[in-house]
Amino acid sequence: MPFMDSRVWSLFKSNWQYTLTYWSAFFSFGLCVAFLGPTILDLRCQTHSSLQEITWVFFAQQLFLFVGSSIGGFFNKSLRSSLSALAVCTLVISVVFAMIPLCHRVLALAVAMAVAGMAMGIIDTIANFQLVKLYQKDSTIFLQILHFFVGLGALLSPLIADPFLSETPCMLFNGTININTNNTMRHMRNALNGIHTHMSQFPFHTEGEVVTNVSYAFWIMALINLPVPIAVFVLMYRERLIACGSGARTRLLERDELAMRAQGSSALTTTPSQSSIGNDNSSLFSCCRYGDLTGQPLGFVGIHVLAGMVLFFSDGIVGAYEGFVYSYAVAEPMSLPHKTAGYLTSVFWAAITAGRLAAIPLSYRFPASRQLTVNQVGIMCTLLMLLMLYTSPAFLFIGTLVLGLFISSVYPSMLAFTEDMLNYRGCATTLLVTSASMGEMFLQLLVGSVMHSQGSYSFMVCGVIFSILGFSSYLLLLYCWRIYSAQSTGDVEKNTKAEKADVNGVNH
Fold first, then answer.
1. Radius of gyration of the chain, Cα coordinates, nearest whole angstrom
2. Neighbouring-strand partners of residue 210
């Protein structure tokens, strides 16, 4: 079987500029995902703040990422507004990277990260939505590639930052340093990767001479990201979306016709839903604009809620595992050496990136529902095994790798599957992206609190509970899909019979 048939390839060639733009924007998103953890100690020195104060920066980024995801749907009213928002947000990310070295107070740094988080959330919603709108039933493979770029950016940013990180404490007190081992510094960096970490064990001075070169890392990342907003502006200029007037509208019409030719007759049947996507998805609660929500089938409401819950738990597991697997590994009974445990987060992100890369051809060969079933069962079984073999360091690394592979493609597959179930009405994408952001923020906070009060063993217990809840939500989602499909089929048959009766009445 070929990797991509001629129809899909023709559709991609008709929209390759837009597709590459959305993929590159998600690379910007990925750069912002993972840089904060490794650089947090250097930023603490730069802002003369305590560790308790600097960790609020994590929360500011996560909170406003959720807010940005929620409001991102407002920019999907038209292609011009969505590309304009994408250009501004990717440019904002470069500006924030460049401005971070100038933030010498923790409040200024928190504001900068809140702005970056807002931009990340808007990018997340717009890029996912626009790819679903472009490719509809063929969107799964393109969404997998989109989310691969997140993993690529998340892998690249720590590598860029690493040569510029301080190997010894970056703040001198009375001309001396209060900790003198590189292992201790690495231990603290890895332990501070979560947004709710017990930090009283890490006392640091907040006054003294700052010795750090981390500014160069942020300036390099700003330059690497700068071509992305430039590419978006160039695309808008070529498509006559910057100039006001009728020229832009004419060009958009030409583009839609081109896409329909590439899709063939199947695209012609979905044109009304394409139109509704562009017009109706203007807010998080735009689902209610399809008429009275109480008049919708029960399955319609259930699909939205349960699909959001699946992503709430799966992205929550990603955030919690990334944030606290190191703390779990160095604590009893695992008691891994700090340096060894530090590789776990890298293994997890590498597995996610590799899994998304592998999911690209798999999504062309297998339906999204089958992939999601395998993913959900794999996540639950892997976490159960990690819980049972909680004293095995070898299986911790193996389980981390396997978990990353299984969980990597849940997000893009669920987006494509849900929109397919709802015949691409456009409501689900914004709601699902927001649910995923909410899960990543709240479940990471919850796990951090539980680990602090109940001990490290609760980390895997929480993971197993979340995976069971996610799998249960997925099973209920499939049940609601059956109900909704049956009701929709019944409505179509009733309408067909009514139309035939009207025709017969007119003839007689």
1. 24
2. 171
Indicate the SS3 state at residue 19.
Answer: helix
Give SS3 for 174. coil
pTM of the model: 0.79
In whole angstroms, give the CA distance from residue 330 to residue 343.
12
CB 377, CB 402: distance < 8 Å: no
Conformation bin of residue 423: beta by default, left when phi > 0, alpha when psi is -120 to 50: left
Q: How far apart are CA 21 and CA 233, in angstroms?
A: 10
pLDDT mean values, one per 10 residues, the chain (508 residues): 67 86 89 79 80 80 89 85 92 93 90 93 90 84 88 84 72 51 58 55 53 84 92 88 53 45 42 40 46 56 89 93 86 82 85 90 85 95 94 92 94 88 75 90 88 87 95 93 74 53 52
Burial of 276 (0-12, 13-18, 19+ CB in 10 A): middle
The Cα-based distances of 329 to 112, 336, 375, 402 in angstroms read 32, 6, 24, 17
C-alpha–C-alpha distance, residues 118 and 152, integer Å: 21
What does the DSSP assignment read for 24-64?
HHHHHHHHHHHSHHHHHHHHHHHHT--HHHHTHHHHHHHHH
Give me the count of residues in the chain. 508
Both tokens of 420, joined, read 């397919």
Token digits for 33? 């995902």
